[in-house]
Amino acid sequence: MSQTLDSITTGAQVGALLPLLTAIVQRPAWSASVKKVVATALALVAGVITVAASGGWEQFQHGTLTFATLAAVLAASQSTYDLIWQPSKIAPAIESVTSPNRPEQVG
Length: 107
Hints:
By secondary structure, this protein is mainly α.
C-alpha cells in the first residue's frame, strides 16, 4: 500500500507542474478541444515516464500501480491548471510567449 501512495504522490507532484510544460507546446489560437487532447496526451506520456522513473520498466507489471500513477498525473494536471495556472494567467502567458506567431502579430 505504501508503494501505491508513493506512486500517487509522485504522480500528483508531476501533474501539478505539468501544465507549465504543456503551456510551452500549446498555442493560444488552438481550440479548447485541441488543447484538451494535447494536455491529456502529455499527461499520459508524463505518467508513463513517472512510472518508469520511479520503479523502472518492470513497474508496468503492476497494473494498479501504473493506473494509479497515470490517473494522479492526469487529475493533478487538469485540476491545477483549472484552479491555479489558468486563473493566475501564468499558463496563458507562457503559451503566448512561446508561440511562434503571437496573437498580436497575426494578421
